[in-house]
Design brief:
Length: about 280
């Protein structure tokens, strides 16, 4: 696999956290995949895709569960997207949210390229696989997470989707059928939804937060890195979300680690920063 392909360390941490919840030894899986503990300390760090693929294979071997990736859906959006979901939730409508997802996904992983294609009455969200041998665990989790979060953002059931396409080696067809989403095998994953839905306003729309985060993510992309702490500072300024929730959504599993990192960077705790903004 090309050494240029990568996934964020938050992605690997999410896989290991899910494995631990299933009673597997996260430390042993990490070692077998050749991932050093230090690689997981910075949630913005990039881990070579080959190590992530090896981690998937080790999870498959240890769990014996072909639906491991399907079950990972509960942790994907919160932990993996490093605050990108904050941007997606604050967009004015679904179309802007999906466009932002396609634009900024490369900051999280370049193993998959997302494209939004207007086909008239329907719109296709396609996932182009940069390698044919990407493990089905990751693809299953990605497809199911996208469907669930898009449906959540517009307060519609998953069955709103016209069709889903999954790669031949994926195992999420049963879950899709259970959600009422028609599916078929395709060369690469895709989601098909009515184009009219793209104009649906999002309940979490926040113009100030959305534009601030767009500037932040574009700056991070141009610099070749993401900056979760700066994202957190924007969110602290623009919302009343609990600090623990903000920490979780930018990839910190323990809020204490987030608070220490924030204070080290900015000289104040998140609470002090928020209070200062309120008094300004």
């Amino acid at each position: 696999m090309s050494p240029l392909l990568f996934a964020s360390s938050a992605f690997a941490s999410t896989i290991l956290l899910h494995a631990a919840r299933l009673g597997l030894s996260a430390a042993e899986l990490r070692l077998r995949a050749g991932i050093a503990e230090a690689q997981l300390e910075d949630h913005r760090a990039c881990i070579p895709a080959e190590q992530v693929e090896r981690l998937w294979r080790e999870c498959e071997r240890a769990s014996g569960n072909p639906r491991f990736g399907c079950e990972l859906v509960n942790g994907m959006a919160t932990h993996c997207l490093q605050g990108l979901n904050i941007l997606l939730d604050s967009a004015p409508d679904l179309g802007a949210s999906l466009a932002a997802f396609c634009e900024h996904l490369p900051s999280v992983t370049n193993c998959v390229e997302a494209r939004l294609l207007d086909e008239g009455a329907v719109t296709r969200l396609g996932l182009r696989l940069m390698r044919d041998d990407l493990h089905h665990f990751g693809l299953d989790a990605a497809v199911l997470t996208l469907i669930r979060n898009i449906a959540r953002r517009i307060a519609q059931p998953a069955a709103t989707f016209i069709e889903a396409g999954i790669a031949p080696h994926q195992h999420c067809g049963e879950t899709l059928a259970g959600w009422g989403v028609p599916w078929r095998v395709a060369p690469s994953p895709f989601l098909l939804l009515p184009t009219a839905l793209l104009a649906t306003p999002l309940p979490g729309a926040n113009e100030f937060l959305y534009h601030s985060l767009r500037q932040q993510w574009r700056g991070a992309r141009d610099a070749g890195e993401g900056d979760g702490l700066s994202l957190a500072r924007i969110w602290l300024r623009a919302s009343d979300q609990p600090i623990e929730r903000i920490a979780e959504r930018i990839g910190y599993r323990q809020s204490g680690n987030f608070i220490r990192a924030f204070r080290k960077r900015f000289g104040v705790t998140p609470k002090q920063f928020r209070l200062g903004q309120c008094q300004a």
